[in-house]
Please model this.
Amino acid sequence: MFKIFYLTCFLFLAGCTTIGFHQTSLRNSMSFGEEVNIRVCVIREPGIEPEEIQSLFTAWNEELSLYHLKAEPIPLAIMERPGFYGSDIIEYLVNKKMPEFCDRMLYLKGRTWGDIAYEVFTLGLFVGVGVKLEIQGAVETRTNTKGYIKAKYISTIQLLFTSPKSTLVHEGYHLLGCGHQLLMKECYERIRDVKLLLTDPKRDPNFFPNINAEGIKIVTRPI
Ligand SMILES: [Zn+2]
Model:
């Protein structure tokens, strides 16, 4: 079983899609270097339109601009989901070879009748227990370079708590090597360190590097 980051939403946390609270003055005092493009290869389920992908990336890039980074979506494939659960998608991604024009791989999960039934079920848990444990997205922690988000939400209670855009921003931080923390300092430092790897002589010059969940430097493209 792969270790993956789960985004769980608790009723009492309004900002449940955040990975930590921003510390603006601290961030402004840090240097993130030049603007760099990250090529994000996108696999999408049928039914997710290119305009939706554009608007997701616009939201993500607004956040990434804080660190002088820009995510560029590169369409890779349209395919049916490799399995019902998030863990099935992660397993698929971990085993899928990343083409050499990709720095990251992102799977956009749609919404089927099966999902809707599952949502109703988890909504029951939400009402009954007061905890919403539906998973909105995940990133594998071996290299922190591959992940998925639920890209479709239609007028369910979900929209009160989260959205595909905030999920992408959240998982986007994991794709830059960040974990969860109360305050963002650690994550700012992680992104700065990832960008410093661009000058590492061991880095594949055709790959935007990363640092994984355990702090191991990922300087060459994973399979
Ligand atoms: Zn998370």
Observations:
- The beta strands are 9-10, 36-44, 69-78, 104-109, 131-132, 137-139, 146-150, 210-211, 217-218.
- Residues 5, 7, 19, 170, 174, 180 surround zinc ion (CB under 6 Å).
- The helical segments are 24-28, 50-64, 86-95, 113-129, 158-161, 164-174, 185-196.
